[in-house]
Design brief:
GMP Synthetase, Chain A, domain 3; Ribosomal Protein S8, Chain: A, domain 1; alpha+beta; 3-stranded antiparallel β-sheet
């Protein structure tokens, strides 16, 4: 939430000044009149009106607007659906020729997701958690990672060794950890430095 105080000869002028500073539409802003001001008598004792404006920005709208700008620059058109679950804001993109937004093993998608989070965080001034998906790619990738985690956990149980997976994003590592957190025979942990941090699957001791 952003908060500003503004002054003007009248309350409406003060509100208009505050809206310009915020760059916000009137209908999205909560207004508190701190001082209604007074015209005084013959110009004496006049006091400016003072208001406090609070703007709880629509994170979903900001994310979609930024994403649309990027897609226009890339020459692709997308339809975006916004949903929330588990504390994350999900942007689901549909359209034609969107493979360019995914890239090799989702690397472009991860980079674009990072940019969306960064741009929105700068606008709202707080940490945001936005997951970007294109044509259901992340769900398919999640299903693949869950199957991989379970298959490799069986290998660890058979051999007694440990398995080190390829470097993954924090989101994908979390999928592996979650897939095996209920397994009483194996444990998972991450090692290495970003962006080469990897998940390790090993026997529980």
């Amino acid at each position: 939430m952003r908060t500003v105080e503004a002054v003007g000869k009248t309350v409406e002028e003060a509100i208009a000044a505050g809206l310009r500073e915020l760059g916000a539409p009137r209908e999205e802003v909560e207004v508190e009149v701190v001082d209604a001001g007074t015209k005084g008598f013959l110009g004496l004792g006049a006091r400016l009106a003072r208001v406090r404006l609070k703007w709880e920005q629509d994170v979903g709208r900001l994310a979609v607007e930024f994403l649309q700008e990027v897609c226009r620059a890339l020459g692709v058109q997308v339809r975006t659906e916004v949903s929330e679950r588990d504390g994350y804001l999900y942007l689901g993109c549909r359209g034609r020729g969107l493979g360019v937004l995914i890239g090799r093993r989702g690397e472009t998608l991860d980079a674009l997701q990072y940019l969306v989070n960064l741009a929105v965080r700068r606008r709202v001034g707080k940490q945001v958690r936005i997951v970007l998906d294109v044509e259901g790619y992340r769900q398919r990738r999640e299903d693949t990672l869950v199957r991989l985690a379970r298959r490799l956990s069986e290998k660890v149980k058979r051999t007694g060794g440990r398995v080190v997976l390829e470097p993954m994003s924090p989101h994908e590592r979390r999928i592996i950890h979650t897939a095996l957190e209920g397994d009483t025979q194996v444990c998972t942990f991450s090692e290495g430095e970003e962006p080469y941090r990897k998940v390790v699957i090993a026997l529980r001791r």
